[in-house]
Amino acid sequence: MVLFTHQFCHVVESEDELIDQVFPNMQQHILDEKWLCERSILALKNETVVKINKKILGEIASETSVYNSIDTVMSSDDTTSYPVEFLNSLDLSGVPSHKLELKVGVPVLLMRNLDAPRLCNGTRLRITELGRHIVKATILTGKAKGDNVLIPRIPIIPNNLPFNFKRLKFPLKVVFSMTINKSQGQTLKVAGIHLGTPCFSHGQLYVACSRVCKLQNLHVYAERKNRLT
After folding, report:
1. What pLDDT, in 10s, does the model give residues 36-86?
2. SS3 state at 224
3. pLDDT, tens digit, for every residue of 146-180?
4. Residues 103 and 127 sit within 8 Å (Cβ to Cβ)
5. How far is 228 from 114, CA to CA, in rounded Å?
6. Which of left, alpha, beta for 25 (phi over 0: left; psi -120 to 50: alpha)?
7. Residue-level pLDDT at 229
8. Where is the DNA helicase Pif1-like 2B domain (predicted)?
């Protein structure tokens, strides 16, 4: 068991408090690129990440654009076996989900290499304009930081299924929160750690805690049944 103390970090009492500590006055700072790229909430499971991103996105008072993927099987023999509704429901690791909700100003993570070394898998960006077929964004990380870029829909073909299908999609996901594994190599000014599960290895804990330089900028939340303090 790992023991967290208030001397080690700032322990919060709820998920909402964790969000408020990491992203205070969100509406006021949503267009501040430096502010956005220096903070994130880290979680062990992708389900937790999705929930937190959806909650924060809902707090931003601007119009939501919804982008659904176009999913098709690559063999006509599979058309009846794998209907479009089934393909839409597939939520695969490393593959953008069927439904993507975006707002101007939100930070996103690029999920595919588009134009190395400027636009690589893992590059963080901020949405600046939402078109029907193109998304405009500003690069937040890497040597091309500050560059304005266009992100198109691209075909994505998973290789871990018993059949072949293609998902035409923007290779992006909202990234107020990310998994601990995905945060490796990133330096943050402010970080939140969401301990929604007791299955938390020391290695993952080290990765999460070492994202920040100052412990007073580290905020930790655990559900009461999993509370470590």
Report:
1. 989 999 998 889 999 999 999 999 999 999 999 999 999 888 888 999 999
2. helix
3. 999 999 999 999 988 989 999 999 999 999 999 88
4. yes
5. 42
6. left
7. 43
8. 85-130
d(CA 196, CA 50): 13
Q: How far is CA 97 from CA 42, 67, 181, in A?
A: 20, 10, 19
Tokens of 144: 């091309």
Looking at 77-224, list the stretches that DSSP marks H as alpha helix, in order from N- to C-terminal side. Answer: 84-89, 202-209
DSSP string, 93-128: TTS--SEEEE-TT-EEEE-S-SBTTTB-TT-EEEEE
Counting Cβ atoms within 10 Å, is residue 135 exposed (0-12), middle (13-18) or buried (19+)?
A: buried
Which pLDDT score, from 0 to 100, does residue 138 have? 96
pTM: 0.86
The encoded tokens of residue 131 equal: 């078109």
> Is 21 strand, coil or helix?
helix
Q: What per-residue confidence (pLDDT) applies to 103?
A: 96
